[in-house]
Amino acid sequence: MKKTYLLQSAVIASLGGLLFGFDTAVISGAEQALQQLYEAAYQSLADAMKGLPLLGKPGFWHGCTTASALIGTILGAWLAGKPSDALGRRKTLSLLALLYFVSAVGSAFAWNWASFVIARFIGGLAVGGSSVVGPVYIAEISPARSRGRLVALMQFNIVLGILLAFLSNYIIGALKLGSVEWRWMFGVEAVPAAAFFGLLFAAPPSPRWLMIRGRAEQARAVMERLGNENIQQEMREIQQSIDSALHTPKEPLFQRKYRTLILLAVAIAMFNQLSGINALLYYSARIFSMAGAGADLARLQSVIVGLTNLVFTMLAITVIDRFGRKKLMLAGSIGYIVSLSAVAWAFYTGRGGIIVLAAIVLFIASHAFGQGAVIWVFLSEIFPTRVRAKGQALGSFTHWFMCAAVAWTFPLFAEQTGAHIFAFYAGMMGLQLIWVILFMPETKKIPLEEIQKRLGIE
Fold first, then answer.
1. pLDDT of 428
2. Who's near 404: CB < 8 A, 6+ residues apart?
3. How far apart are CA 173 and CA 41, in angstroms?
4. Phi/psi zone of residue 14: left (φ > 0), alpha (ψ -120 to 50 degrees), beta?
5. Residue 166 pLDDT > 90, yes or no?
6. In the chain, what's the furthest Cα-to-Cα distance?
7. DSSP string, 115-140
8. Whether 21 contacts 165, CB under 8 Å
9. What is the per-residue pLDDT across 397-448, written as a single tens digit (0 to 9) for each?
């Protein structure tokens, strides 16, 4: 019964990941329609900025529309640590659920370009916050032996959300709803957002957060409900981590002693996006169109991408606590290099179609098995309790900043040739492989308080 309650709580928290994934991918089915709808607005903005680098091109402003949610994720990821520490992980997730709902409804009923961008920005705040608070909450309620699998539920729900977005886009497109088609694509997200908000009332507060706030007896009660073993010892270790004579609960993150952890977080987050993963998710239909597929076929191929993502994420979840984080990253890095090089070659030589689809399926499988499964687990593990939310926020901020940069600039490269940008992504994954081999530590099956000791943090 206690194990069921633990799994239930982790699943509920990870539903923020489902909305995260849906919100990230849903625009792929609508971005070409949005480009046509707001073409006049883009041209007007470009004319106003004529003569300025990048800003004087309509493609830049379409990239702005697509990346508007990502601007929100940057701010959401950066700011989420404060309400997470002040209000608690669970209450913060409830606030994020409300933001998801407002964004879905606002995007569906947007009356002009500015209102659409604002609505997507609000959704981005929720995505950025979810990427911080969800993994932290799950890590803090989970025992060390199963923490990797439980935190990886976040990634499972992210990719499930991506698949549901692609599938939803395909179904709505097949209904031929005309000019309101794109509005339905965004609006359906309101349903899971409302469900997420309601289900959170069944989840407990984080016991580690309760300890930080000095509510030890409540923390003990939650640990008992979650089925934790050696509760007294675990509480003692948490208390020592929090109340050491050298530290306070409001300890700043940017200190010399945390330099290694900061560099690890920034590196894994940067490499995650320098693979080009979100360029593919945001522009999947466009990429397949570039390779010669029609609109309906391009959306169907996007569904295949989403399904591949889900299958290999499920595989990674089953082995992440057995093989460890580093081996998954090694396998994923090699797959990245091979697949991205193949996509670049296909566009350089003009051989699209099945070659591009096969290479992108391999790319998605590599991401799901490697970076996709590891990043949120790794970020939630390496920082001590007293700065965990801040550290997770830094990693998420870096992730979303790079994501925004990639998504914003991709249309500009796509207007010329897809070959150069995919070759660049392949080169970046070569650097990631070197980083994994030389610098990335293994954290599997190590208690959170022990990880900081192994990384030289007392």
1. 95
2. 67, 70, 71, 73, 74
3. 25
4. alpha
5. no
6. 67
7. HHHHHHHHHHHHHHHHHHHHHHHHHH
8. yes
9. 888 788 888 877 777 776 666 678 889 999 999 999 999 999 998 887 777 7
- Nearest-angstrom CA–CA distance, 448 and 238: 9
What pLDDT digit, counting tens, does each position of 117-160 carry? 999 999 999 988 888 888 888 888 887 677 777 877 887 888 88
CA distances from 115 to 105, 107, 108, 111, 343 (A): 11, 8, 10, 6, 36
What Cα–Cα distance (Å) separates residue 179 from each residue in 12, 223, 257? 35, 52, 56
Q: How far apart are CA 153 and CA 380, in angstroms?
A: 13
**Which residue's structure tokens are 């900043």?**
401
Neighbours of 248 (CB within 10 A): 11
Highest mean pLDDT among 104-118, 224-238, 313-327: 104-118
Instruction: Report angle CA 74, 57, 42 to the nearest 5 degrees.
Output: 75
DSSP state letters, 240-271: HHHH-TT--TT--S-SGGGHHHHHHHHHHHHH
**Cβ pair 99, 196 in contact under 8 A:** no
Q: Enter the tokens of residue 355.
A: 């070659």
Domains detected in the chain: 2-203+244-454 (1.20.1250.20)
Q: Which residue has the higher pLDDT, 18 or 322?
A: 18
Mean pLDDT, residues 156-183 taken together: 87
pLDDT for 198 equals 95
At 165, give phi and psi (nearest 5°). Answer: -65, -45
Residue 327 tokens read as 């081996």
Mean pLDDT of 239-253: 62
Please give the Cα distance from 170 to 299 (Å, whole number): 6
Q: What is the pLDDT of residue 392?
A: 79
Residue 256: which residues within 8 A CB-CB, separation 6 or more?
Answer: none
Contact 299, 166 (CB under 8 A): yes
Residue whose tokens read 């950025």:
128
Q: What single DSSP character describes residue 206?
A: P
- For residue 185, the model assigns a pLDDT of 94
Measured between alpha carbons, how far is 73 from 130 in angstroms, rounded to an integer? 9
pTM beyond cutoff 0.85: no
